[in-house]
Specification:
β10, α13 and β11 form a beta-alpha-beta unit. α1 runs antiparallel to α14, α11 crosses α12 and α13 packs across α14. Helix content is 42%, strand content 13%. 51% of the residues are buried. It contains 14 helices and twelve strands. The chain has a single domain, classed as TIM Barrel (Alpha-Beta Barrel), CATH 3.20.20.
Length: 358
């Protein structure tokens, strides 16, 4: 089924058809005025390319690595809670799609099925994403499970000290399963750099810090030995009136100075979006909403097709930019530009009727 899709715009429309209003709003909306979410799109739209010509681009390599693991394209699958709302097998479906295509998926600690079942679904590398929901003895127990299951890295999310005011959900009078029996929020709210150090040491795995939004915090993270700085504003679902993540990237890349790898998410929906991030210093982009739309449209086949379509966009755009490897991209291929349309959750897909899928 998914193989019939020729654009990701078609996948978004199919996903909307398959999802009820509550789940659609959970996946697609942001917090409060959704300004952060729109800035993610606007930030990408405010960048233009500076292509080079008369370069032999007959052969193009779209691959990269993160933590030494090869990715077919510079795109990973971001952690998403309550994946079972989008596909019956939840994290297992994502893991199978990631293995089929050739990328890495982050497995959320607040999705189904269990971390062990998801790990066993395929043999490719997976990263476990942790929300702290208990004291350190609770953390120790879950990390023991993570290591036994064979996850290749640990990702700690730190931009959810308090759950964002996601007003689409609030007006629906609806919460995802993970919020219906939410744990005591004090554990997330009381995280500190010292807590992070203890978790990092306890894990003994390559360590990713998700939710970094400033050069100041990126510099501190590097001093604390973080292996990957994961730039994120939670897709505009947490702090409203935050900056676009693509606008955070240059200052963070400068602060990191090559001492850690950089992964970024936040409204990346096109192959050109991915290339802009790589040019500005990211090793890879993580997709959330686009991942969810692929799952909702056609399960594993839908998600695999999303990745294939983004790969095609990346391949063509690299050729037209005059680069044959993603490592050749640099800020010299990017310049500032004026956006041509108002940003919103569907503005990357201009052929969707009315510009919105309500």
């Amino acid at each position: 089924m998914g193989l019939d899709f020729v654009t990701n715009q078609e996948i978004v429309v199919a996903a909307r058809r398959n999802l009820n209003q509550n789940v659609w709003d959970y996946l697609t909306g942001g917090s409060e005025s959704e300004t952060t979410m729109r800035r993610n799109r606007r930030g990408l739209d405010c960048l233009a390319f500076r292509p080079r010509v008369l370069v032999d681009v007959a052969k193009i390599d779209t691959s990269t690595t993160v933590l030494g693991h090869r990715l077919r394209i510079p795109v990973m699958l971001a952690p998403i809670g309550s994946l079972q709302l989008l596909a019956p097998e939840g994290g297992v479906t994502v893991a199978k799609a990631a293995a089929e295509f050739g990328t890495i998926n982050f497995v959320s600690s607040v999705t189904q099925p269990s971390l062990e079942e998801t790990a066993a679904a395929s043999s490719h590398p997976k990263i476990f994403q942790l929300y702290v929901h208990g004291e350190m003895d609770w953390v120790e127990k879950i990390l023991a499970r993570v290591k036994k299951a064979g996850y290749v890295a640990l990702c700690l999310t730190v931009d959810t000290a308090h759950y964002g005011r996601r007003e689409r959900q609030m007006m629906d009078r609806w919460l995802p399963p993970t919020r219906q029996a939410a744990p005591d929020p004090k554990f997330r709210a009381s995280l500190t750099w010292e807590t992070m150090d203890a978790i990092k040491e306890m894990a003994g795995l390559p360590f990713i810090l998700k939710g970094v939004a400033t050069a100041e915090d990126a510099a501190i993270a590097v001093k604390h030995g973080v292996d990957v700085i994961y730039i994120s504003n939670h897709g505009g679902r947490q702090l409203d009136h935050n900056r676009a993540t693509i606008d955070m990237l240059p200052e963070i890349a400068q602060a990191v100075g090559g001492k850690a790898e950089i992964v970024i998410d936040g409204g990346f929906l096109r192959g050109t979006d991915v290339l802009k991030a790589v040019a500005l210093g990211a090793k890879a982009v993580a997709i959330g909403k686009l991942q969810g739309w692929g799952l909702a449209a056609a399960g594993q086949a839908g998600l695999t097709r999303v990745l294939e379509l983004v790969e095609n966009e990346i391949f063509i755009s690299m050729g037209l930019l005059g680069v044959t490897r993603v490592g050749q991209l640099s800020p010299t291929y990017i310049c500032k530009a004026e956006p041509v349309s108002p940003p919103h959750e569907m503005s990357a897909f201009v052929n969707i009727a009315g510009g919105r899928v309500l």
